[in-house]
C-alpha cells in the first residue's frame, strides 16, 4: 500500500488557496481547503483481507474540525480500524459498510490527520470490481470542494 509514499504525495499535492481581495483590498480568508487522501489495494483475491488508508489534509487558511465518511464497497466485510490523529466510529448493523472518522479538535492549516487504516475482507467473487468512497467535510466552508471526495477501485482476481 505504500503509506509513506502516499503521505509524501499527499503533502506535495496542491498549494493552499491564495487569499482573494475582498472589499477595500482586504484579504478574504474565510473558510479552508480540506482534502481527503484515500488509497487502497489495486487487487485482492476472494476471501482475502486488504486495506484502505485515510488521511485528512488541511491546506488552510483556517483551522477546521474535519470529518470523513467512508463507504466500503458491497462484497466486503469490515474487520477493524486503526487510527492516529482521528477517532472513528465502526460500522453499525444498520450501516455495515459506513465508517465515520474525524479530528477530535481543530486541524490546523497545513497539517494532516491520520493515517487511519481500515481492514476489510472481500466476499466478492473473482472478476468483481470493488469501489470504496471517502468524503471529507468540516465546520468551515471549503474554498476548494473538488478534492473532498476520493474513490478507490480494487479488482478481485
UniProtKB/TrEMBL annotation:
Any Pfam family: DUF11
The entry's keywords: Signal
Domain DUF11: 42-152
Signal sequence annotation: 1-21
InterPro entries: OmcB-like_DUF11
Protein name, as recorded: DUF11 domain-containing protein
Amino acid at each position: 500500500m505504500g503509506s509513506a509514499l502516499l503521505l509524501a504525495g499527499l503533502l506535495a499535492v496542491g498549494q493552499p488557496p491564495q487569499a482573494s481581495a475582498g472589499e477595500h483590498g482586504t484579504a478574504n480568508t474565510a473558510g479552508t481547503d480540506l482534502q481527503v487522501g484515500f488509497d487502497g489495494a489495486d487487487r485482492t483475491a476472494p476471501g482475502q483481507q486488504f486495506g484502505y488508508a485515510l488521511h485528512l489534509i488541511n491546506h488552510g487558511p483556517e483551522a477546521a474540525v474535519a470529518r470523513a465518511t467512508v463507504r466500503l464497497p458491497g462484497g466486503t466485510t469490515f474487520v477493524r480500524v486503526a487510527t492516529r490523529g482521528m477517532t472513528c466510529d465502526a460500522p453499525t448493523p444498520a450501516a455495515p459498510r459506513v465508517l465515520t472518522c474525524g479530528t477530535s479538535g481543530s486541524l490546523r492549516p497545513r497539517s494532516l490527520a491520520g493515517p487511519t487504516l481500515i481492514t476489510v475482507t472481500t466476499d466478492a467473487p473473482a472478476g468483481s470490481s470493488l469501489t470504496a468512497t471517502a468524503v471529507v467535510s468540516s465546520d468551515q466552508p471549503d474554498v476548494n470542494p473538488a478534492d473532498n471526495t476520493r474513490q478507490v477501485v480494487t479488482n478481485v482476481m
